[in-house]
Amino acid sequence: MAFQEITEQEWLGESKAEKEREAIYFFTPLCGTCKLGLRMLEIAAAAGSTTPIRTMNINFTPTLRDGWRITSVPCLVLLEGGEPVRFEYAMRSVDDLYRLLK
Length: 102
What we know:
Layout lengths: L3 E2 L2 H6 L7 E7 L4 H15 L6 E5 L4 H6 L7 E6 L2 E6 L5 H8 L1
Parallel strand pairs: 1-3, 2-3
Antiparallel strand pairs: 2-4, 4-5
Helix pairs in contact: 2-4
Protein name: Thioredoxin family protein
Pfam families: Thioredoxin (PF00085)
InterPro entries: Thioredoxin-like_sf (IPR036249), Thioredoxin_domain (IPR013766)
């Protein structure tokens, strides 16, 4: 399962009123831990987690990165109504991610 990769401009251009619960996974292409975290998210999503997940390359997200003070990757940001409610930097296990996204 592949997640939709979006740009910062695309996300910022969406209406916040239409957004409910979602998650954005920030990564960099050469980060091995990011690839492992993405694979764990794919397994959690395939198991039936209900939160939509999209991905963003943090190298091209200066507004969100600085505004949300994202300090490292991988970073899974849970959002409600377009606003961050949780930042998860440690991808501990598929089970943890599944419960987080349920």
